[in-house]
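Sorry, explain these tokens?

***
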Amino acid sequence: MDMSDTVPIRDYRGNEVGMMLVEAQPCSDDGVVLTEDFVEDPKELRGRKLKFRITIAKLMGLPRKFSDVRPCPSSAVFLLP
């Protein structure tokens, strides 16, 4: 079950400065994306640990001053002018 969504990027004042396409894919403990595991009933997942690989697939609409965008180890994205 892959999921993707477009979410706003906001500055420290809360103003929208762009958009990003974020994807989430279920993965194993070692980070390998699961493609064959399928659950018919979500109740089967109760009590199980779930892990996801989160990917920022695309950044859109950012002003030129944010040309240096770097991922951080905490999985946050900081915009540096």
The chain has a mean pLDDT of 78. The beta strands are 3-10, 16-27, 51-60, 68-71, 77-80. The radius of gyration is 16 Å. Residues 3-80 form one domain.
